[in-house]
Amino acid sequence: MEKIQQRVLYQEAADRIRGLIELGTLAPGEKISEKGLCEKFGISRTPLREALKVLKSEGLIEMLPNRGARVTQLTAKDVEHTYNIMGALEGLSGETACQNISDAEVAHIRALHITMVEHFHRNELKEYFRANQQIHECIMLASKNDLLLEIFSNLSQRIKQIRYSSRMTDDYWHKAVNDHENMLEALQDRDGKRLGNILRNHLDHKLEAANLTGMVTD
Questions:
Q1: CA dihedral 153, 159, 162, 164 (to 10 degrees)
Q2: Cα gap 112→118, rounded to integer Å
Q3: Beta-carbon neighbour count of residue 50 at 10 Å?
Q4: φ/ψ of residue 75, rounded to 5
Q5: d(Cα 189, Cα 33) in Å, to the nearest integer?
Q6: Which pairs count as long-range contacts for 126-132, CB under 8 Å and 24+ apart, including other chains?
Q7: Interval 43-96: pLDDT, tens
């Protein structure tokens, strides 16, 4: 029982730290206070350190010799290369999803899209991001390619704080919603080539519009 409890603790701690990084509460390059997090979460250092090992394996934090841990500071080139790979993977997922997706899955994505647009018009960015992320995940799942999903998820986790960032131009937000309208249309038509191209370009647009000042190094 004790071992199971410890496992639950470190997984919960890892989830919470991911959330702090995603929201920017723990900023890129910021040193992580083990004592502060232990007090915040009400846990001992053992499960916290296990959680930090998990996050290190995901690329979210770095372990510094004799200096503890800090949030990974990506370079602009890191982000560009990661987006390029993710764009290729998303394009492939769109092409294969159109071959495999069911009517029920399309209906679910359509419902998520409607919800996302409602949050956009109400300027509810946190809720908008959640629905947005679910749409991309559903398309990826519809590809029925587990390896593709695993690789994409790992890459996405590394730059989540950037990918789901509110620091974008107003012009980008409207283009992003328009991209999603086109995604849904292509998905409903089972037009894999068109959906693949939209998904590839969608990430390119985001990178072009991103304000990464203070979030990445040169």
A1: 10
A2: 10
A3: 16
A4: -95, 160
A5: 51
A6: 129/164, 132/164, 132/176, 132/180
A7: 999 999 999 999 998 888 998 888 889 998 878 888 888 888 999 999 999 999
